[in-house]
Amino acid sequence: MPDWVDGKVYFYADSGPRRLMDLFSVKWSSMVLHALWHWPEGRARPGELQRSLQGISKKMLLQTLKELEIRGLIHRQVFQVIPPKVEYSLTPLGKTLAGPIEQLYQWGLEHRQALDEMSENRRKHTEASASGDLR
Amino acid sequence: MPDWVDGKVYFYADSGPRRLMDLFSVKWSSMVLHALWHWPEGRARPGELQRSLQGISKKMLLQTLKELEIRGLIHRQVFQVIPPKVEYSLTPLGKTLAGPIEQLYQWGLEHRQALDEMSENRRKHTEASASGDLR
DNA sequence: CTGCATCCATAACGATACTG
DNA sequence: CAGTATCGTTATGGATGCAG
């Protein structure tokens, strides 16, 4: 579906896809969306999310949630209780995005072995270029 | 498809999806794959690609291509001529990944307007927090 | 034309401490 | 428990120059 000019793809100036990938550059955004999508009842608290997304820091989780909220992909519901309680859930728009993300993750699951080999190749390669020519 | 433990998703330790997203953290990798996927004949030269991926620098294009080659997602064919000629194309594995990427980009196209509003909201928000309380 | 190496700015990230 | 702020490290990306 790109625009073709002179037989070349002039596709990604400030197009939808490009902006979408900008969003993905926030490392954890797709995982948060994906986790919320799979969450029972579709609502999750920050603490729960952090425990699920192994390795994410509190800072990054909150930052990602804020980012997604501003962009209208997730909804933030505050309960006026002590201690504080907040629940996040996908907006209708967020839910439409969850589909493609699911597809992508599905690919990741199906090609787990290939992905392992990729990491392996990459490791070998960087090692080689690192040690190779010192003397 | 996550693994559920204690009702929480312990999904993304060093799973396929996580590794996949690592690959995507190379900003241009999905666009390069996508461009090659749409390219006539499925083979493209670096120069052509750079002209198509508006805004990519030579350095990043080459780096991305190398990365994708090492990972076995694209193939590099060298022609022994002067001046040098090289063509890149998707490997079979790369082609299977192109599908999900296409889906994602499709979403980006369909929700272009929403994505515009997202950027807008983000702009407003960061402006507000930047200027808001200085006086 | 393809590819590599430097230098440099800045953006992303994590650890930690602190507030309500 | 939710959220913010600060600091320091590392990764990312762009500009430029050079080589085959």
Automatic annotation (TrEMBL), chains A, B:
Pfam families: HxlR (PF01638)
Sorted UniProt keywords: DNA-binding, Transcription, Transcription regulation
Coiled-coil spans in chain: none
Domain HTH hxlR-type: 15-116
Listed name of the protein: Winged helix-turn-helix transcriptional regulator
